[in-house]
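Thread: quick sanity check before group meeting

JM: Hey all, I'm pulling together slides for Thursday and realized we never actually wrote out the predicted structure for the chain we discussed last week. Dropping the sequence here so it's in one place. If anyone has concerns about the input, flag it before I start.
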Amino acid sequence: MTSAENAGLLQAGNMGMFLLTDSITAAGSRFRNLLSPNLWWPDDRAWCVATDVDLMASYVGASTECVHAITNCSELEALEVSATMSVQWDSDTINPRPDERS
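JM (edit): ok, ran it. Output follows.
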């Protein structure tokens, strides 16, 4: 496992990111007590997961087959979105704000 001390650093705008390499199985346990990865993908770049520090959702760019596997997984809360859909806090159609719940 690569430690943050030995990781590369990517500067993206005002945000610095550590560049780490590991297995897909490590993604669920490596950051258990820290912030989650902002961007991660396999070597073949078949998909990419993006989690913005200011948003409450992660986004996956992938093939239609991969997206359908995610949205059909009962263990995940997932919704297929288009590039034109809003990512603002008030655009969540699954989890309304507490004051909007009936």
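AS: nice. The chain has two domains: 1-36, 41-97. The mean pLDDT is 79.
JM: adding both to the slides.
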